[in-house]
Design a protein that fits this description.
It is a single chain. This protein is α+β, with helices and mostly antiparallel strands and about 450 residues long. It is about 25% helix and about 30% strand. It has 10 helices and 20 strands. The chain has 2 domains: about 10-250, 3-Layer(aba) Sandwich (Rossmann fold); about 270-420, Distorted Sandwich (Coagulation Factor XIII, Chain A, domain 1), CATH 2.70.50.
Length: about 450
């Protein structure tokens, strides 16, 4: 059934997992006490006949839509769940970063939870003592380490949980989407640590919707679709097929992309004020003006849910003055999945001078951007408004990562971060001396 694989540490052989679903809470009790054992539930199959092997030291990624069975699979590997049928063989110490705060006692302090979790994973008190300072330093939660976990933010819980998981010398590390809760700074540190563990030969099972991260670290990728294996193989091939399928499935997006534009004029796209900011990682400025909304649209003014390489987009930003702003500058920064400032612009940089703003004034600015061919990853937009000039200004409002969109996989391969527009020409041809001699010998 399997190809010959050397030294597998995780092996699934036709693993299936079902959950009983009851229409009413009382049906569970009635099913237990009824003499004829009448079935009052229906089976929901989270996994069906899933088979794969993971080699020692391999980074194995799992992708798929929400509800496809990814978390159930990880919980079976972690030993939290048992398969309904099939066999799951795991060899080695498993450290897991799964659901937010799983394994933590909310009444215990962070320090107590470190000792509790490390002990469960097989470390002695002396071993934990030696590693405690490193765990505390990596988590960077300060004095909260001595406070009950129930007082922690979601990001602090992830910091501590990840720090424990990587410092117990795991042979197999399981990482679920919990990292998505962390801020960009900590996610970057986590990804660097994942790379370090990978280089040291730790087997990593990584579940993520961040396709850029999957492509960066994955040796092999499994695509789960409604609990079954849709694709299994080299990461680049599987990710390409997955992204293509997601674009096809987004019928609403395709309808917007191909709809008639007869009654839509590009000159009218700036009439609507944008209300709402999808996300705020960090916000700062003197508050004399504020960003009140941001959206990314296609060239006809329809909202975008997926970016495509070499596509024209409109980044629309609405700002409102709280006080007088003499020289308003509106702009945005585009960041990649690693949090690196990838590109940015503003009205002053583009030579568009905005009029002064009085208290209550609202400006909506459209940036028409021709995207280059970028690698498939998620990109975030950070909008801002300032007062002044390019050489001297005061920031009124800046919002980190207000909106994030996934870049789809284009038709051509992108080497590195982007493909530069390029034209290839043959500028000359000269025969080698060896070829000339061979020709003369043949003629002679």
């Amino acid at each position: 059934m399997f190809d010959q694989v050397t030294d597998p540490v995780v092996e699934f052989n036709q693993v299936s997992k079902s959950y009983p679903i009851y229409e009413k809470p009382g049906d569970r009790l009635l099913e237990l006490v009824t003499l004829n054992r009448t079935t009052r539930h229906r089976d929901f199959w989270a996994l069906r006949d899933v088979s794969f092997r993971i080699r020692r030291g391999e980074t194995f990624c799992v992708i798929g839509e929400n509800g496809s069975g990814k978390s159930t699979m990880l919980q079976i590997v972690a030993g939290i769940l048992q398969p309904t049928s099939g066999k799951a063989n795991i060899k080695g110490r498993v450290a897991a970063l799964l659901e937010l705060g799983s394994g933590f006692n909310p009444e215990f302090s962070g320090r107590d939870n470190v000792y509790l979790n490390a002990a469960i994973l097989g470390l002695s008190s002396a071993e934990i003592d030696r590693r405690y300072k490193d765990i505390e330093a990596f988590a960077e939660i300060g004095e909260f380490i001595h406070q009950p976990v129930k007082t922690y933010s979601s990001g602090m819980i992830v910091r501590l949980a990840f720090s424990v998981a990587i410092h117990v010398d795991p042979e197999i590390l399981l990482v679920d989407e919990a990292l998505a809760v962390g801020d960009i700074y900590f996610r970057q540190r986590c990804m660097r640590k994942v790379h370090d563990l990978r280089n040291k030969g730790v087997t990593i099972l990584f579940v993520s919707h961040a396709i850029g991260d999957v492509k960066a670290i994955g040796d092999t990728t499994l695509w789960l679709d409604k609990g079954t294996v849709r694709e299994l193989g080299p990461t680049d091939i599987v990710v390409s097929k997955y992204l293509a399928a997601m674009v096809q499935k987004d019928s609403a997006y395709l309808e917007l992309k191909h709809r008639s534009t007869a009654d839509r004029e590009l000159s009218n796209v700036g009439d609507t004020v944008v209300q709402g900011i999808p996300n705020i990682d960090h916000r700062y400025g003197d508050g004399r003006a504020q960003v009140i909304g941001i959206s990314v649209l296609d060239q006809y003014g329809a909202p975008l849910y997926l970016l495509e390489p070499a596509q024209r987009i409109i980044v629309r930003i609405s700002v409102q003055a709280k006080e007088e702003v003499q020289n308003p500058i509106v702009g945005f920064m585009l960041r990649n999945h690693l949090g690196i400032d990838f590109a940015g612009t503003n009205t002053a940089r583009e030579g568009h001078e905005l009029p002064p703003m009085n208290p209550g004034d609202i400006f909506t600015v459209d940036f028409l951007v021709d995207l280059p061919e970028l690698y498939p990853a998620h990109f975030s937009f950070s909008p801002a408004i300032a007062d002044g000039t390019l050489h001297y200004y005061k920031n009124c409002d800046w919002i980190d990562n207000a909106l994030t969109l996934q870049m789809s996989h284009g038709e051509g391969q992108v080497y590195g971060y982007l493909h530069m527009p390029c034209r290839v020409e043959l500028s000359g041809f000269r025969e080698t001396k060896h070829k000339q001699i061979a020709t003369e010998t043949t003629l002679g």
